[in-house]
Amino acid sequence: MEPKLSSGAEVVTVDVHAAKVLLHSGYRYLDVRTEEEFEKGHVVDALNIPYMFITPEGKVKNPKFMEHVLSACNKEDRLVVGCQSGVRSVYATTDLLNADFKNACNMGGGYIEWVKNGFAVKKPEPDTEL
């Protein structure tokens, strides 16, 4: 079931190559994965605002997702929205467009595809203490 847009706008999905170009031209990367996923590795300079939380009952939508985005971003900001594989980010981008974020696009393939293409990521420093 595809998410519905109330504004009539359509989610634009770009591949990781186009996303990389957009990020170099001033777009900001909004990573909507869980904090745990984000901490294992993420696109450099990414902003992490989880769209879903993992609970004992399964994945649950973050009820404060838009509130957190609005506190960190302006509706005029140009955003590339990504997740692990490109599913949650479609839903998050839909919510952003419905909230009048006009310049939000979805990154198809997500972090998995970004890594597969050998693009720069930030990973946790290895623990050097014994």
UniProtKB/TrEMBL annotation:
<dbReference type="Pfam" id="PF00581">
    <property type="entry name" value="Rhodanese"/>
</dbReference>
<dbReference type="InterPro" id="IPR044684">
    <property type="entry name" value="STR17/STR18/HARC1-like"/>
</dbReference>
<protein>
    <submittedName>
        <fullName>Protein HIGH ARSENIC CONTENT 1, mitochondrial-like isoform X2</fullName>
    </submittedName>
</protein>
<dbReference type="InterPro" id="IPR001763">
    <property type="entry name" value="Rhodanese-like_dom"/>
</dbReference>
<dbReference type="InterPro" id="IPR036873">
    <property type="entry name" value="Rhodanese-like_dom_sf"/>
</dbReference>
<dbReference type="GO" id="GO:0003824">
    <property type="term" value="F:catalytic activity"/>
</dbReference>
<feature type="domain" description="Rhodanese">
    <location>
        <begin position="23"/>
        <end position="123"/>
    </location>
</feature>
